[in-house]
Design goal:
Helices cover about 50% and strands about 15% of the residues. It is α+β, with helices and mostly antiparallel strands. The protein has a four-stranded antiparallel sheet, covered by helices on one side. It folds into two domains: about 90 residues; about 90 residues, Alpha-Beta Plaits, CATH 3.30.70.120. The C terminus is likely disordered. Helix 2 packs antiparallel against helix 3, helix 2 packs parallel to helix 4 and helix 5 packs antiparallel against helix 6.
Amino acid sequence: MVDAVLSSGLFTYIIVPLLIFSARVCDMTLDTIRVIFLSKGVKYLPPAIGFFEVIIWLVAIGQVMNNMTNVVCYIAYGAGFATGTFIGMAVEEKISLGLTSVRIITKEDPQELMQFLRSHNYGVTSIDGEGGTGRVKMVFTIIKRQDLSHVIGIIKQFHPNAFYSVEEVKSVAEGVFPERQPHGMFSWIDPFWSARKGK
């Protein structure tokens, strides 16, 4: 019975491609997580993740090499790569590690916005600037990435027409951050989780 299944088209055109597809989804998802941890300064998890990632990749590429004449395997390999990339991006959104810099430029007085942010323990700095249509106020804050949606909501509440930009921050020496418990799938390994009190 087993030999019949192995010699049939079911194994060649369904089981093997599904194995390749699943392996590629797993290894691409792990690859995304590994790169994120490396960029955030996590030292010990990336090598372990890379170990399993490469083993899974070898399983996938080995099956492709053993089925060079099977076009379905090539399609499964490409589809797994694309799906794994998509899932990795979704996981990256859930992880929410690290720090983010938010720059706000507005023509209006930002004092209420700044006071509200400070009341929620966000560090805020403001300077005067010159825009294309006159004088503006520039407000800077560095926040935990998991708080980005909250801060953007505050900006839209006080200055719905303000221009703002968001940039990733590699590291900081001092800062003011809300003291709250971390959330998210991998927030326990966030190297920036400990709130640092500064100026």
